[in-house]
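Technical note accompanying the year-one report. For the benefit of new consortium partners, we illustrate the data format agreed upon in the data management plan: each record pairs a sequence with a C-alpha cell string. No post-processing was applied to the example shown here.
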Amino acid sequence: MKTYTVDLHLQTCSCGHWQLVKIPCKHSCTTIGNIKEAVSQYVSAFYSTEVYRATYERNIQPIPTFDMSDLPQPSDVLIKPPTTKRFPGRPRKRRIHSRGEVDHAYICSRCKQIGHNRRTCKDRPDVPQYYT
C-alpha cells in the first residue's frame, strides 16, 4: 500500500494533485476530515464566486476577423498522412483483454480443479479391468 505525505499548512501532497489544480486531493481530504475541518477552507481562492465575477465584470472584446490570405502560405510543401504498416498474416481472432479482465477459467468436471477440462485431465481414475 502506497503512502502519501500531506502538509496542510503548505497545502501540498506528495501525489502532486493538490499543487497542480489547487483543490485538495483525496489524500488531503482524508487528512482534513480526520481533524474535523471543512475541505472548502483549503480550496484555492481562484475557485471562489468573487474571483469568477471579477474575471467577467469588464467587457470582453471579440477577436477581429481577418482574411485567410493574410496568413503565411506554405511554399509548395505537401503534407501527406503517415504511412501505416499492415502486419503480415491473418488478423487475430481473439481480442486482447483489458487490464483486470479475466479470461475464461476452465474447471475440470472430473477432479474439480481450475485450469484444464475433463479431456486434458492428468488425474485419471483407475481404468476398470473388464477383461481378466
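Partners are asked to follow this layout when depositing records. The mean pLDDT is 84.
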